[in-house]
Structures are given as structure tokens and as C-alpha cells.
Amino acid sequence: xxxxxxxxxxxxxxxxxxxxxxxxxxxxxxxxxxxxxxxxxxxxxxxxxxxxxxxxxxxxxxxxxxxxxxxxxxxxxxxxxxxxxxxxxxxxxxxxxxxxxxxxxxxxxxxxxxxxxxxxxxxxxxxxxxxxxxxxxxxxxxxx
Length: 144
Known about the structure:
Layout: H1 2-19, H2 30-35, H3 47-64, H4 73-85, H5 90-101, H6 106-112, H7 124-141
């Protein structure tokens, strides 16, 4: 009986481990999901890009100190950059960008770095939409 109980516990632990989708990022839980995100190198990602993205993710997690209240525009920008370098799905880049644009100060990055970022090619329509909104709000405030 004891061996059956041990087997059931072991089976449950193994099954639970396999049933969880690794590196899932959702809009509602993005901040907590990111803490368990572990970069995986795809065949199309160079060693240099993977190494840099892994470093950015690690340093971002350190700066957040496992506290969702610590997220700011720079964190989301760094996450977005790392996800792009890892050639993650467009949906993950869109999630990170949606989180970025929710924060005050995001327009500064969106307007000033449009021509300097690689992820612009992946989320062009969404980026351009917010870029125009940011430019419009800047001109209304007289800061353009």
C-alpha cells in the first residue's frame, strides 16, 4: 500500500510538471508570469543574441526584486527587446508592448526610439498607432 501511495504522489508531481506550459505570458498575469520565464534558444537565434537576451532578462528580474509593484517603462522596454532578440511569437511582443503603453512615460520611448529598434518590424501597425497617439498628445501639450 505504501508503494502505491508513493507511486501516486510521484505520478501526480510528474504529470503536474508536464501539464504546465513553460514560458506562458498572459496579459492579466504578465508581471508574475515573467518571473518564471526562462529563455530558450531557437535554432534561428544566434548565440550572441541569445546570450544578450538572457542577460537582459536576468538583470530585469534582479531589478524587479520579485515584486510586481516595481515594474516601470524601462522594464517593459527591456523585456520587449529581449523577447524580440529571442524571436518569440508576435503575440508575446504585443503583450509586452501593451503593458508598456499603459504606463506614463511610454511615449518618450515610443517616439524617440522608433527608428532604433528591431521589434518595430514585428509589431509595426500597433507601434505606429501608439506613435501617432503619442505625437498627437505631445503636440496638444506643446512639447513637440
